[in-house]
Amino acid sequence: MLTRRTTFDERFKFSEAQWCAIDREIGKACIYHYPDMRELLEYVADDYCRNRCNHQPASKNARQWRRRAKLAAQLLAEIVGPGDEQQHWLLELTAHFSLAAGKKKVGAIKSLQHSAEVEDLVESFLAALKSLQDSAEVVAGEIEGHEFGYEHPRMLFFNQIAVWWFNMGGPFAASRNIKTGAPDGPFVRFLQAVIGPVMGTDAPTPEGIYKIIHREKKQLIQFGFAFDKDGRAVVDDQGIAVRS
User: Residue 64 class from Cβ within 10 Å (0-12 exposed, 13-18 middle, 19+ buried)?
Assistant: First the structure.
């Protein structure tokens, strides 16, 4: 399991396996390449790790949203267990909701037993919790970004990585897997490969990354940049992104 890096005796370096995962996404999706990209990423990663320890704490409002995200994650971990245990827990919860609505508890449980309603209830309840966790992380990040601007280590780290991907001609987009609905795409995988080893347990979830990409792209469009159907920046004859 990835953990937060707290010692700085040596400069941050990606392992060979970690770098291969990053380089693979660059090679598959980007038009241009920085020959020293590994050194650049390791430099900003090390800079982030050091600066985050010296940075002033987030405001009370941001901390509250981080706490909400953590509580949602803890509740998800508590619920997602063996199938029978998960089903029993949710059946009991539903029964109590039904009781509050004026229905008999036993009848509520019996009516849900061995039916598709149980599976639907499990999926919708877990999806709602996951959405709450991801949204809380994004809101906390937006609050921190608004308060500290790009001087905030987390925002600066994301911004530097995104700028390099943008300049390399990578598709600035996030899609969803057709089968699972999970966030997917070259930029999502690239960010996961870079951020995961650096931020560990502090890294945003795939849903959080999905929302960050769309938010950053919206800002780039507001700054006058245009994108083609694949999500790549529209460039001139010299390969420089065009602004309207």
Answer: middle
Instruction: Quote the CA–CA distance of 27 and 16 in Å, as a whole number.
Output: 16
Separation CA 187–CA 193 (nearest Å): 10
SS (H, E, C) 81-123: CCHHHHHHHHHHHHHHHHHHCCCCHHHHHHHHCCCHHHHHHHH
* Residue 136 CA from chain centroid, whole number: 11
Q: Where are the domains of the chain?
A: 7-55+152-244, 57-148
Per-residue pLDDT of the chain (244 residues; tens, 9 = 90+): 344 444 445 688 999 999 999 999 999 999 988 889 999 999 989 888 877 766 555 567 777 878 888 888 887 777 665 555 555 666 666 555 555 445 454 454 455 554 566 566 667 777 887 888 888 877 777 666 654 444 567 778 888 898 899 889 999 999 999 988 899 999 999 999 999 999 888 888 888 899 889 888 888 888 888 898 888 988 877 777 888 7
Whole-angstrom distance, CA of residue 203 vs CA of residue 5: 12
DSSP states along 162-218: HHHHHHTT-----EE-TTT--EESHHHHHHHHHHHHHHGGGSPPHHHHHHHHHHHHH
Cβ atoms within 10 Å of 102's Cβ, excluding its own: 6
Residue 15's region, left for phi above 0, alpha for psi from -120 to 50, else beta, is beta
The answer for residues whose C-beta is within 8 angstroms of residue 219's C-beta and 6 or more apart is: none
